[in-house]
Design goal:
mainly alpha; globular
């Protein structure tokens, strides 16, 4: 298995989240609202940082995003 730099992986995950979100015509703010309905408070700026690959989301955060987008977690890492 080839190794992948952390920064590249974070950008790929972020890009995939953005693609899924946009395909469902959901804004970043709507995503945050949906996430808060799933599991409490979430900072709006975190979505921007995740989508741009500037932060490393936890598996729990990815799970919340997947639930808020109504997709399987694996869809967010399918690139």
């Amino acid at each position: 298995m080839s190794s992948m730099k952390k920064s590249k992986l974070l950008k790929l995950v972020g890009k995939r989240i953005k693609e899924v979100r946009e395909s469902k015509n959901i804004t970043q703010l709507q995503l945050v609202i949906n996430m808060e309905e799933v599991a409490g408070k979430f900072d709006t700026t975190n979505v921007s940082r995740i989508e741009s690959g500037r932060t490393n989301p936890t598996i729990y955060t990815l799970h919340r995003i997947a639930e808020a987008l109504e997709v399987e977690l694996t869809e967010l890492i399918d690139f």
